[in-house]
Specification:
Blueprint (H helix, E strand, L loop, with lengths): L5 E3 L7 E3 L6 H38 L5 H8 L4 H14 L5 H5 L5 H8 L3 H12 L6 H21 L8 H42 L3 H23 L1 E2 L15 E2 L4 H11 L3 H6 L5 H16 L4
Parallel strand pairs: 3-4
Antiparallel strand pairs: 1-2
């Protein structure tokens, strides 16, 4: 039996080429034609997915408070996560030429979704791999993204390490850095998931108008968790005079003015029972709108 394999084209041509030599000529031509149509279909699907994301972002902006999720589920049948994926892909790729089309290659939608929230160096690395003719699976793209995120974390942590430490001190620093990086990687997606959950909670409250007591029950513990998690991840504290149930002895600086300062301030100010005692029922609509605006600014800046 003749071995079937894939090889690269001549230097400079970039794309990967399957070795059709062992296959009958007519069948090989048909398979090549099918492959071209499949790639075109994947590229059309990517363009369509971006168009969906653009329309979803625009519709979400126009819908009244609390109507986004019911409208999404009723009119499109999409889950909220699928909608967010489409919006993220649109926001990430809208300014980029469709480099996959230029190369005659395509990536699965799952890979595009992961690239949409990847660091810029990871995106460029994937682009270069494709330009060099490498075949990338979803797992390959994920590995590239993870590698770059770890590299960014190491560079950030490395700038803090002192130059003159004992050999045992260096070992301890390496151990701590490894544990910190692992903990950060585990905590990051959970924080984003809980931020999205809190946004859903706010939009649901704007639609159903629950009592202040009910809102406190749903929000206060979640706000405490997010306040702690965000402070640990960013090593910054909220710009707020509100007291917390517990405090840290670490002297962390405040967030600079911007979306994250707004979000962390909002969470800190509803994370204590005393704060809820001071909130009037008439204040609730403005409070919810403040939280929604702050969360939208970081979860989908144009949605």
């Amino acid at each position: 039996m003749r071995k079937i394999s894939h090889t690269k084209k001549n230097a400079g041509e970039g794309a990967v080429s399957f070795n059709y030599d062992p296959i009958p000529e007519e069948l090989g031509k048909q398979l090549q034609a099918d492959a071209r149509e499949i790639r075109k279909g994947l590229m059309r699907a990517a363009i369509s997915f971006m168009e969906v994301g653009k329309r979803l972002a625009n519709c979400r902006m126009k819908l009244p408070h609390g109507a986004w999720i019911p409208w999404l589920q009723t009119e499109t049948g999409l889950s909220e996560q699928s909608a967010r994926d489409a919006i993220n892909v649109y926001l990430r790729f809208r300014e980029e030429p469709l480099f996959l089309e230029e190369l005659g290659l395509a990536l699965p939608q799952t890979a595009l979704v992961r690239l949409a929230t990847a660091p810029d160096p990871a995106f460029e690395d994937v682009r270069q791999c494709l330009a060099n003719g490498q075949q990338l699976r979803v797992s390959d793209v994920s590995e590239i993204i993870t590698r770059h995120r770890r590299s960014i974390n190491l560079e950030t942590d490395g700038s803090v390490a002192q130059k003159n430490v004992s050999s045992s001190g260096k070992s301890a620093i390496d151990d701590l850095r490894s544990m910190a990086n692992q903990a950060r990687e585990e905590l990051l997606p959970l924080v984003v998931e809980r931020l999205e959950e809190f946004l859903n909670l706010i939009e649901d409250a704007q639609a159903k108008k629950p009592s202040k007591k009910s809102l406190e029950t749903q929000m206060r513990v979640r706000a405490q968790w997010l306040t702690d998690a965000l402070e640990q991840l960013t090593q910054k504290r909220a710009v707020s005079d509100a007291k917390l149930i517990h405090v840290t002895l670490l002297d962390r600086q405040h967030h600079k003015p911007g979306p994250w300062a707004d979000v962390t301030s909002f969470f800190r100010e509803i994370a204590h029972s005393l704060a809820w005692e001071a909130i009037k029922s008439s204040d609730i609509p403005a409070l919810l709108q403040r939280g929604r605006t702050a969360l939208l600014a970081i979860l989908a800046r144009e949605a």
